[in-house]
Write a structure and sequence with these properties.
Shape: elongated
Distance between the termini: 31 Å
Mean pLDDT: 93
Number of helices: 6
Order of helices and strands: HHHEEHHH
Radius of gyration: 18 Å
Length: 124
Amino acid sequence: MKVDALSKAELQVMAALWRLGAGSVADIQRELGKERKLAYTTVATYLTRMAEKGAVTARKVGRAYVFEPSESLSDYRKATFRDLVARFFDGRPTALVSHFIETTSFTDDELATLRALLDDKAKK
C-alpha cells in the first residue's frame, strides 16, 4: 500500500482495525466509537475505499463482510518512516533524528531512555 494513500479519517478506521485484527463494519464502528462516532454507512464507505486502495481485504462470512488489514501496523510504520525520511530529510535518518532532538523538549528520563537506545544500537 502506498504510504500516503490513506486519508486522515481512513487512517483512524485503519487504527481501529489494527487494534481488532479483523472485524465487520459493526465491529469497527464500535471500536471507533471509543474515540469518534461515525455512522455505519460512513465506516462501510471508508472500508470500501480502503479495499480499493489495497489497504484492507474483505471476505464474506455469512451475511457480513469481515475486513482485515493488508499489512501490519509495524510494516506501515516502517514504510511511513522511510517515506518521511525520503521526502523531508533527503533520505538521511540522521537528519530526521537531529531535527527531532532540536525541536522537542525531553524530560531527564526520556533523555536517559534515548541514550540507552543509542548505546544498545551501537553494541549491535
